[in-house]
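*** Fold description ***
***
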Amino acid sequence: MFERLSNSFALAQSSWGVLRRDKQLVVFPILSGIACLLVLLSFWAPVIFGVGVERMFADGKPEPWVYAVIFAYYFVSYFVVVFFNAALVACALMRFHGQTPTVADGLRAASLRLPQILAWALVSATVGILLKLIENAHEKAGMIVSAILGTLWSVITYFVVPVLVVEQLGPIDAIKRSASILKKTWGEALIGNLGIGLFMMLVYSPGVLLLIAGGFLAANGGNMVALGLAVIALAVIYFVIAAAVGSALQGIYITALYEYAAFETVPQGFEGDTLRGAFRSRDG
């Protein structure tokens, strides 16, 4: 386990190296976040302020029409997230092949996969609404079952986005392909999240220090309050940027594992030995 964690941390460092060379990859998570916020406001602001929260629920449960709104919201949100993730994956693949991608290149590549992205968003929204129904079926057991099924869904669809971008498969075939690639990694892909998590702890550290310093200055009162609040605001901005960096690293990491698993080629910027360690057999 320690060896796998160390290996995934090394892969996270390689992903960081790719991101340092192609800093524009951070733009995609930022655009995705802004678009998701706009989608959230466009769907729920009219409902909340137009219809009213009290009319959305009956006996503590959502009205049937609310599920239709939730489904539509899920569909548009998943489309936005997958579209920008696909653009990030496309740019990462270009870099792995020695090209110098631009944001426009990524958006263009994602646009060419609109049918696959739309189909996948539809499937994801359907799964999302089913999990929501299960969650609301029973207050405690429903939440547990929904959480377990949601985790399993996230696991088996781990490689779906690069599969959609490269292999242009339909949703069902993309799920099967993702699951087959996941088997080849023997859990490295999932443990890799811990490696990236540890790496991101280092990235978040300056923001934490800024937050502590800002809180200390604000707590002193007097003329230091304004300075403290300014430092806290700076820390919040730093955390937003760091979150975008983490999302970009995740996309690069997944794409690198997919590239090696699907084509047995070492992506530019990664070490062959480190990647081979991600695809050892169980007995190895």
